[in-house]
Amino acid sequence: MTSNDSTRNKLMWASFLTLVASGVGFAVRTAMASDWGQQFNIDGQQFGQIMGAGFLGFGAMIFFGGILVEALGYKKLLILAFLLHLVSGALLFVPSNAPDNAFTILYWSVFLFSIAQGLYEAVINPLIAQLYPDNKTHYLNILHAGWPGGMIIGGLIAACFVGSNAWITQIQMWEIPLASFTILLLVYAALAFPQKFPPTVGEAKADWVKMFSCFISPIFLLLLVLHACIGYVELGVDSWTTKLMENLLPNSVLILVYTSFLMFILRFFAGPIVHKINPIGLLFISSIIACLGLLWLGSDISSVAIIFAAATFYSLGKAFFWPTMLGVVGERYPQSGSVAMGALGAVGMLTVGLLAGEGIGYKQASNMSKHLEENAPATFERYSSGDQKNFAPFKIDMGLPAYTGLAANRIEFAKKSPEDAAMAISELKDADDATKQALKENLAADKEAIKTADIYGGRRALTLTAMVPAAMAVGFLLLLIYFKAIGGYKPIELDLGDAA
Prior knowledge:
Layout: H1 3-30, H2 33-40, H3 44-72, H4 74-91, H5 102-131, H6 136-143, H7 146-161, H8 175-178, H9 182-192, H10 208-211, H11 218-244, H12 253-268, H13 270-276, H14 279-297, H15 304-318, H16 321-332, H17 337-375, H18 377-383, E1 384-389, E2 403-406, H19 408-411, H20 418-426, H21 433-441, H22 443-465, H23 467-485
Antiparallel strand pairs: 1-2
Helix pairs in contact: 1-5, 1-7, 1-9, 3-4, 3-5, 3-17, 4-5, 5-6, 5-17, 6-13, 6-16, 7-12, 11-12, 11-16, 11-17, 11-22, 11-23, 12-15, 14-15, 14-16, 14-22, 14-23, 16-17, 17-18, 17-22
């Protein structure tokens, strides 16, 4: 192996580890709803906002990071991302000492985490495309296997140490498993920082006007819209999988571990699949499978075997979305360097941060609340927060119906043993003695009603979300027709001119 090959391999695996670290942090975070709800009274929609922050900073930074990469080079931005990731981990240890500000601190910790993620992707996507110019889609799929790989590790950490159903023991300091991703930061830093990075397209004095030319292509603009949908359906659903399945599985984080394992395996074998089915065809088929998978997961199923079968089907659909789209942009718009890839990642992540995280939370929480109000009104009165809630992204009233929220700290009673629930009720600070007594006397019936409403809310959220991949299938079908009309999908070499 030559020194160049050795450097390329080290940079590849260091890039891979940035996504593993990000996946670990993300997966453990998805299991935090119960702990945060009980300790800080963070409800479903607030949890969705925190999860959304995990993509909001990512979306903004991956686009501007793509521009900064071309101006400053790969290595400087990778070091900055490393430092921001460490700071986000340190902030996790603050909320327990400042519970009144817990939501705000957690939000900004996750936001910094997402900025670091954005910088990573702004670096590693064009870096790997540059290191492997003859097989971009295959190696980008391998690179992005790091994300589900990290979710497998993080999911197992959560299954073993987070929540009352923890396999080994519930670590009362939830900050420790949540901050475990920082260990991987040190490994990839030691692997990557001593290496010499190749120059970017911008550092090589490329034409900046040509680099931004992708934005005048109607096909590229359509790809941006489709990738926004991919962000919503892939990462938005992943953010909520653990929460939505918690009443159907004994340790619901396992469904995230399982689907991540399937994604990890499938992405490693994406190359032969892409060679047999062109990437647009693969994305079209994947959209249909993802739509059907979400409809199946949202149906009235309770068997663990059937739930995992539906999750398998959904995973086959979502596995190739993100890296294959990056490969398409890399092959069709090579003159745009990291700018085109940064724009693609930005719209995907901003969609999750601004729409999907809170939007799926709204669908789950509103349907749960309304189901409880209609079918168990007495339980609804005891567990209602009294707050009117709605979903208005960008402060725009979308005409969606408002609903009365449920008290997150009380909802957690439904997940405890009778003894633990009674003790938690006695310690409530937002209820008088009469209310506490009513909660204790009706605990058994209330728990069943809440569980039923929670399951209904989760199923409705998944069913409604299935409309997104259905729309994606239409978009990819239009692209298939377009490329057939111009002679078929073909990668474009950098020296052959601009892409269509």
